[in-house]
Design brief:
- The protein has about 140 residues and is an alpha+beta fold.
- The chain has a single domain, classed as Thiol Ester Dehydrase, Chain A.
- It is built from 2 helices and 6 strands.
- The protein has a 6-stranded antiparallel sheet, covered by helices on one side.
- The longest helix is centred in the middle third of the chain and has 16 residues.
- The radius of gyration is 16 Å and the shape is globular.
- The relative contact order is 0.22.
């Protein structure tokens, strides 16, 4: 399994969420703040989307070989209820794992365990490129 399943990157740092990888699953958690809100005073849809996308990527990384990478192919997202404060927790689970494509589902819940958003997605498994030969 890949060792790099919990990387820090600028969007994660800006949004301020944590990622907890599992085996074929992962969780992403975020304490909502004013900079997560849309003009209506609730969490922007990009926030639960980013949590689910990142949790899905971490779940994929937990089932692929060391050195392999992954990339989102597509995610279908449904928003179920608005939320403006508290903690959002996204849980992603691998449904099927092929050599080149992995299918997942994810759900984001609020602090009261109410469903905020859900998603299904597909991720590509990418083999590392061999180093270029010196010229």
């Amino acid at each position: 399994m890949s060792d790099s399943i919990d990387p820090m990157f600028p969007l994660r740092e800006y949004l301020g969420f944590s990622v907890e990888p599992g085996e074929g699953s992962a969780w992403a958690r975020l304490e909502l703040a004013a900079h997560h809100h849309n003009p209506n005073g609730v969490a922007h849809g990009a926030v639960p989307f980013a949590l689910m996308d990142t949790a899905m990527g971490a779940a994929v990384m937990s089932v692929i070989d060391d050195g392999q990478l992954c990339a989102t192919i597509e995610i279908h997202t449904r928003f179920h209820r608005p939320v403006s404060d508290g903690t959002l927790t996204a849980e992603a689970t691998v449904l099927t794992s092929g050599r080149r494509v992995i299918h997942l589902e994810a759900r984001t819940h609020d602090s009261e365990d109410r469903l905020v958003a859900s998603a299904t997605g597909s991720f590509a498994v990418i083999d590392p490129r061999p180093p270029l030969a010196p010229t």
